[in-house]
Each structure stands twice: as structure tokens, then as C-alpha cells.
């Protein structure tokens, strides 16, 4: 097991707290090494992703998806009637779980579907117009309004 001390990062930077927190969370999650349920993260386009979780044995009512504070929480709780069954062999795990995914800025969930034992969650990044790069036209040889006001006040 490896441990990393991120104290120098906090001491030498300003405004990068989110990156350090993300590293802390990632390292802590790897220490716990939660592997249930298995999942895939697929890039479907430049600004879209799909998270697919293997949730065999769970009904739609057993699953819950919530976005809170830029975190995607996927939880499953099996109904109580499953406990009354007697199994000779139980190879399909239907234990309760909670899986969290930290979402980047401007990433939102657009939909979810449950089919053939797979839960698919679609995500898309929608950058607001104010944050998108924009081209500024360069004028040549024409004085701006601010320069004209200065010239009038001087003369």
C-alpha cells in the first residue's frame, strides 16, 4: 500500500483545492478497493459519456440515482422478500451497494435506463455560452468611441 502526503501541494498552491481533494478521494477509494458492482465508463462523444453498471438481480424499484453536490450516487437495496428464499447455491450477488462518481464542472446526467441486468447512465458536458471561447474581431484604422471622447476633451 502506498501513501502520499499532499501537504506540500496545499502549502505551495492557491486555488487548486479541488484537485488536491480529488486526489485525496481517489487515493482513499483505492485503499477501500470497492469492486462491486462492476462498471464501465464509455466515452460516447467529445462531451458525452455513459456509465454502465452490472446490476443483475435488481429491479427498477431497487435502484436509485441521485446527483448531489457534483457527485453521482447510485444505490441499490434489495427488497425484503428475497431474504425468505432458501438457496442451494447463490452465485449472483444482490447485496446492497452505493457507488459514487465525482462529476466535473458542467457535467450533468441526461438519462438512465435499466435493461438486461445493466444500468446505463448517460452524461453530457454543457459549457455555458459565457465560458466558451469566442472570437474577437480586430478593427483596423477606425477609432473606437473611447478614443473619440478623449480627443474631444483635449481639443
Give a quick summary of the entry:
With 155 residues, the chain is of the alpha+beta class.
Describe this structure in words.
This protein has 155 residues and is an alpha+beta fold. The protein has two domains: 33 residues; 93 residues, Immunoglobulin-like (Sandwich), CATH 2.60.40. 21% of the residues lie in helices and 32% in strands. The strands form two sheets. A four-stranded antiparallel sheet has the order 1-2-7-6, with no helix packed on it. β1 and β2 form a beta hairpin. It is elongated. The protein starts with 6 loop residues before the first helix and ends with a helix. The mean pLDDT is 81.
Distance between the termini: 76 Å
Strand order of the largest sheet: 1-2-7-6
Level-2 CATH architecture of the largest domain: Sandwich
State the helical fraction: 10-25%
Shape: elongated
Q: Could you name the CATH class of the largest domain?
A: Mainly Beta
Largest sheet: 4 strands, antiparallel
Q: DSSP helix count?
A: 3
Rg over alpha carbons:
25 Å
Q: What class, by secondary structure content? A: alpha+beta
Low-confidence stretches: none
List keywords for this structure.
155 residues, elongated, 4-stranded antiparallel beta sheet, Immunoglobulin-like, alpha+beta
What is the strand and helix layout of this fold?
Layout lengths: L6 H6 L4 H16 L6 E7 L2 E7 L8 E6 L2 E6 L20 E6 L4 E9 L2 E8 L19 H10 L1
Antiparallel strand pairs: 1-2, 2-7, 3-4, 4-5, 6-7
Amino acid at each position: 500500500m502506498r501513501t502520499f502526503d499532499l501537504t506540500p501541494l496545499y502549502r505551495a498552491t492557491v486555488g487548486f483545492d479541488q484537485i488536491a481533494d480529488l486526489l485525496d478521494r481517489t487515493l482513499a477509494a483505492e485503499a477501500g478497493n470497492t469492486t462491486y458492482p462492476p462498471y464501465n465508463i464509455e466515452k460516447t462523444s467529445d462531451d458525452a459519456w455513459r456509465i454502465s453498471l452490472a446490476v443483475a438481480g435488481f429491479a427498477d424499484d431497487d435502484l436509485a440515482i441521485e446527483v448531489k453536490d457534483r457527485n453521482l450516487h447510485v444505490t441499490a437495496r434489495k427488497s425484503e422478500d428475497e431474504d425468505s428464499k432458501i438457496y442451494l447455491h447463490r452465485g449472483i450477488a444482490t447485496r446492497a451497494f452505493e457507488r459514487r462518481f465525482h462529476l466535473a464542472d458542467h457535467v450533468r446526467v441526461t438519462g438512465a435506463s435499466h435493461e438486461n441486468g445493466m444500468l446505463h447512465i448517460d452524461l453530457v458536458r454543457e459549457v455555458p455560452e459565457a465560458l466558451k471561447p469566442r472570437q474577437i474581431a480586430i478593427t483596423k484604422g477606425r477609432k473606437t468611441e473611447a478614443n473619440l471622447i478623449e480627443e474631444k476633451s483635449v481639443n
